[in-house]
Amino acid sequence: MSVTTGNVISVPEDSYRYGEGMLKMYVAEVVSRGPYDGQVWAELRGHDVHPDGTLVARERFAFVRVDRVRVVS
User: Fold this and answer.
1) Collapsing DSSP states into helix, strand and coil, what is residue 28?
2) pTM
3) Residue 73 to residue 41: CA distance in whole angstroms
4) Are residues 6 and 27 in contact, defined by beta-carbon separation less than 8 angstroms?
5) Domain residue spans of the chain
6) Mean pLDDT by 10-residue block, N- to C-terminus, for the chain (73 residues)?
7) How far apart are CA 30 and CA 28, in angstroms?
């Protein structure tokens, strides 16, 4: 799976740091990507996505396991 700028992604709670529940995020930047703890992880900068599809104004960072990312749009 390739995570790129402009993607909206969803990631299960057990496959990203840090937060609670399913992560749904608009990716503004892929800061870094590489191996961590035996898996490929990516550090992302972006915005959470509300259920209606609008973006949360506050920027956030997330560290996600790339093989568990699902691109939503």
Assistant:
1) strand
2) 0.93
3) 20
4) yes
5) 8-71
6) 91 94 97 95 97 96 97 92
7) 7
Tell me, what DSSP letter sits at residue 19?
-
Amino acid at residue number 59: E
Alpha carbon of 54 to those of 24, 48, 49: distances in Å? Answer: 11, 9, 6
Burial class (CB in 10 A: 0-12, 13-18, 19+), 42: buried
| Surface-to-core class of residue 8, CB atoms within 10 Å of its CB (0-12 exposed, 13-18 middle, 19+ buried) | middle
3-class DSSP state of 65 = strand
The whole-angstrom separation of Cα 49 and Cα 33 is 22
